[in-house]
Amino acid sequence: MLWIVDGMNVIGAGGGQSQWWRDRDGAMLALVDLLERWAAEHNEDVVVVFERKPSPPIRSTVIEVAHAPKPKRDAADDEIIRRLKAIPDPHAVMVVTSDRWLAERATVIGAAVIGADSFRGRLQ
Q1: Range 2-123: architecture per CATH
Q2: pLDDT (tens digit, 0 to 9) for every residue of the chain, 124 residues total?
Q3: Distance of CA 96 to CAs 15, 22, 23, 90, Å?
Q4: Whole-prediction pTM value?
Q5: Using an 8 Å Cβ cutoff, are 7 and 28 in contact?
Q6: Helix (H) or strand (E) holding 3
Q7: Contact 67, 76 (CB under 8 A)
Q8: What angle do CA 95, 102, 20 make, to 5 degrees?
Q9: Do the Cβ atoms of 28 and 11 come closer than 8 Å?
């Protein structure tokens, strides 16, 4: 199965105690690390989508780290929908998000959806 992860949703699901908003790039890097370990352990294909490019860029040989072409509000959601529409069999995709609009659109396209809180629990 292909997992497409709304990165900032999963970071935010980690709770406020981490104060991730003070170091968004560090939070992105930490999420990629968690996703790499989870994907390798469970033999899953994972794409994490962020609203903007991390700085410095994050590279992975285990998962795909992607970002929206132009940073703006809901840019990652738009990128996830664009990617879903390009997949021949969206029924083989699980979208991870807490955004109701994105979840509804992904379901209409044919993907399954899991909430960011539930997925974050799987990572830890």
Answers
A1: 3-Layer(aba) Sandwich (3.40)
A2: 999 999 999 998 866 556 777 888 999 999 999 999 999 999 999 999 999 999 999 999 999 999 999 888 889 999 999 999 999 999 999 999 999 999 999 999 999 999 999 999 998 7
A3: 16, 23, 22, 14
A4: 0.93
A5: yes
A6: strand 2-6
A7: yes
A8: 75
A9: yes
